[in-house]
Design a protein that fits this description.
It contains 7 helices and 2 strands, in the order H-H-E-H-H-E-H-H-H.
């Protein structure tokens, strides 16, 4: 699994996301190259998984924190929403109604 495959696995909640996280540690942390741009599909998928109960609010928070901490991911378009999802203590806990509002807004 290369860096791009590992990133895709994690941001898409793939079945091998734990292995992908381990593999990412094999690559240098710093990079000048943005390999993936977080798009509407990624955000919609995570919010829908939360609404359906497939993932918890803590998993959404971890996902958003992972994205915020990566130089190889471009999340500029959804930067504000990623920040909100990554910081429930500051921005309020994610609820199903909030997730639905976020979906309607994107």
């Amino acid at each position: 699994m290369n860096r791009l495959q590992a990133l895709n696995e994690i941001i898409n909640f793939g079945s091998n996301s734990e292995l992908a996280a381990i593999r990412l540690h094999e690559f240098p942390f710093d990079t000048d190259e943005e390999l993936i741009t977080i798009n509407r599909h990624h955000v919609e998928k995570v919010l829908k998984m939360f609404i359906s109960g497939e993932i918890s609010d803590e998993q959404v928070e971890q996902w958003a924190n992972f994205i915020e901490g990566r130089e190889d991911l471009n999340y500029d378009v959804f930067g504000n929403l990623i920040y909100i999802l990554a910081n429930p203590v500051l921005e309020g806990k994610l609820s199903i109604s909030k997730a639905r509002k976020f979906l309607d807004a994107i």
